[in-house]
Amino acid sequence: MNPVLIEVLRGAAVESRHAGALAIVDASGHVHTALGDVDRPIFPRSAVKLLQALPLVASGATDAFQLTDAELSIACASHSGEPEHVATAAGMLAKLGLDADALECGTQWPGREPVLRAMAARGEVATPLHNNCSGKHSGFVCVACVMARNAGTHPAEFARGYVAAAHPVMREVTAALSATTGIDAERAPRGIDGCSIPTFALPLRALALAFARCGTGQGLSDANARAARRLRRAVAAAPFMVGGTDRFDTRVMEAFGEQLFCKIGAEGVYCAALPELGLGVALKIDDGAARAAEAAFAAVAQWLLKTEAPVLRDYSHAVLRNWRGTEVGALRPAFTLS
Asked: Domain of life of the organism in this record (predicted)?
């Protein structure tokens, strides 16, 4: 059974407990820290978008279409669907001569409530560009267009069906996951993610190794090492694109720049690279609670970076308030994590 990582207080009493597992690994595969079962395969979901974006750079698509830092950053994003996100994803597609119809991620309303309300008030409807994965999928379409150019085929026709596991684009993405984690993803348990691409169940130990490698370049091919470095720098330059207003990932990377790349995934997953320390982090909250995953990662980052930065403490020891603004409780790292 995994240990409790985060406790939820109501008043001074513990109301809820969130168990989970944590792996911190260096680029050689040495385990720095392990809590719980770090070898049980879990679906990392959107926490691995950095890994999934490696082919965008390694394929030459970034140079071919002169992608900006903002466009590379949104390719690693689970964004809130704010106007800047929509415009950036649309701009990527425009460079290809395509529009939102090329995206196969599905339509999703913006995750930020004020944006959603404003759209509804204007009578607007959501499109695939508002999907939190639209940047990642625009990146996939860029890769497809480069492949089509090299094969001498029509880009839009080649890109069609890119979410299927057997499509050349998705095979490159799967190969990137295998190369970074050291696990043959083709043989791993497989599901379908919320945005319709394949998702693979991988151990936390292997995921932490992948992010340590992406932070240092050690253990990667030259192409993937360059791609990881380019993507991390782009995200550090344009962190708003990875999340959005008041989002944890954006706030943390605004504060720490290239010191830290972090990414949340659905169902309580967090992955991160700390390049200067040569470490990768992967954690999973058993019950899938996102706020517990953020709190746990914030506590881990405070410990590893030896900092009391308010942006991290705001999450590791988050104050809970009711609808009147009255303080009613808090989150805190459990003894095992603290």
From this structure: Bacteria
The domain total for the chain is 1
65's tokens: 């279409």
Q: Do 62 and 97 form a contact (C-beta atoms < 8 A)?
A: no
| CA proximity to 80, closest of 55, 58, 108, 112 | 112
For 270-299, give the DSSP string.
EEEEEGGGTEEEEEEETT--HHHHHHHHHH
CA dihedral (84, 86, 87, 92) positive or negative? positive
Domain range for residue 195?
4-333
Instruction: Specify whether the backbone of 25 is left (phi greater than 0), alpha (psi in -120 to 50) or beta.
Output: beta
Whether 338 maps to a domain, the answer reads: no
CATH number at residue 104: 3.40.710
**The pair of three-digit structure tokens given for residue 330, joined into one six-digit string:** 């808090």
- The string of pLDDT tens digits covering residues 193-227 is 999 999 999 999 999 999 999 999 999 999 999 99
The token duo for 78 is 């689970």
Is 324 a member of any domain? yes
H/E run at residue 173 = helix 168-181
Residue 252 included in any domain? yes
Full 3-state SS string of 176-241 = HHHHHHCCCHHHCCEEECCCCCEEECEEHHHHHHHHHHHHHCCCCCHHHHHHHHHHHHHHHHCHHH
Residue 16 domain-assigned (yes or no): yes
Determine whether 328 is exposed, middle or buried from the number of CB atoms within 10 Å of its CB (0-12, 13-18, 19+).
Answer: middle
pTM of the model: 0.96
Sign, CA dihedral 276-137-44-172, equals negative
> Cα–Cα distance between 269 and 38 in angstroms, integer?
13
Eight-class DSSP state of 120: H
